[in-house]
Amino acid sequence: MSKTHYIAVDLGASSGRVMLAVLEEEKISLHEVHRFPNGPIEEDGSLRWDFTALFGEITKGIGKAMATEKTIQSIGIDTWGVDFGLLDEDGKLLENPYHYRDRRTEGRIEQAGRILPKKEIYFNSGIQFMPFNSLFQLLAYKNRPEILSRAARLLFMPNLIMYFLTGRIAAEYTIASTSQMVDMNTGRWSQKLIETFDLPRRILPDLMPPGTVAGMLKNELCEAWNCGPVPVIAVGTHDTASAVAAVPVEAGQHWAYLSSGTWSLMGLEMPHAVINDKTFDYSFTNEGGVEGTIRLLKNIMGLWLVQECRRQWAERGQEYSFAELAGRAAAANPFTAQIDPDDGRFLAPGDMPAVINDYLRSTGQAAIDDKGRMIRVILESLAARYRQVLDVLEDLTGRPIEVLHIVGGGTQNELLNQLTADAAGRRVLAGPVEATVLGNVLMQAKADGRIQSLEEGRNWVARSFDVAEYLPREAAAWETFLKTFPKF
After folding, report:
1. Which of 21, 89, 327, 428 could disulfide-pair with 470, CB 3.0 to 4.6 Å?
2. Residue 111 counted as domain residue
3. Residues 332, 201: one domain?
4. E strands along 134-251, which residues?
5. Which domain holds residue 300?
């Protein structure tokens, strides 16, 4: 069978890359053609995304991919969730999009709950309450009526990029589902929430399902890259939707997934939304997946805690690679302290080691000076939270979970993988690292007719990439640790 080539643009909260994928003989290979740093900038006292610079890096990468391979079937874009840009009537970006860690949404959940009880908001959206959800970001714009009155369209980050590539305005379903403005029982914008909070319905674009052709590259881009018309596919444009699409599941497996990176997203692939008193009480979320699925999941703070510690130490002139920090953690004594990784004080950028020590002192524990010990406490606490979430998922669905598939960049943290298997008491399969890119490519290949189903695509992934197996151990020590671990 002949080769087919696809371009996948994958943007994370700390870096972005443009990948060239080759499909041949029921296998997939990936080639990185461009990588660039990504992160917030400070603008007028707010955290923002530098969209002009970001789009410039994306087009640079696509140009490199086009120069490498002239026959490109399509392009797909995926990014993190919730953030959006606002366009005016002329299709111009009104201002740089806000970064989800900007503090302007603090207190918005409580304000919204005074207008409509939180349970009603949840039953009309199925999304766990996070201060940066798009609903609260949009409500924060009411303090800036001069901007909101000029807005003609709201586009989530991947859809904003797709618009500047194609000129097409639409919101892809999986990314829109992160907003807390979509009724996950119907898959449509929630009329109840729009009316109750007096949201500007006119700016919310039509929803398109993943796998749809969003549009064709603009003529000027085709001329610049010396290529013919190339379709841009609305893949699972939320990066977690793409990551889950590429989980190499074995037939008959009772499995859960953990998309591990800056955030940890752990859940089950479901045929329908699960919205009830229990999911509300446990603060579980229902996000759209590809091929008509729902991702019942929990957002967990993830390796952000490690990343921020490393950044802070680097600012003090103490540079450590992630591998060095993992090695120090592996050598540290186990079970010396514990933190609730989802405590709100860990959300904002800052001096994370100091914030962790403040948490420890406030909970009657001793502060930590040793860097390896601090990283070990973070990783053990993440593993303990994973165990709690897996147990609750079994309770919510009545489905046993025998295997946990970990995908994404966090799979490279072998210590965390093993601690997760130990804490969870379950078999862990880690890999592929590039699950998000692979899920992006699979939806392009399905739109192109190269693969016929998600199951077939996952089989291609399993044949193409190795996974590492971790088996549980030290069960008694973990059960003791878990008895005192903070509940969520």
Report:
1. 428
2. yes
3. no
4. 153-156, 171-172, 182-183, 188-189, 207-208, 212-216, 231-234
5. 243-431+467-488
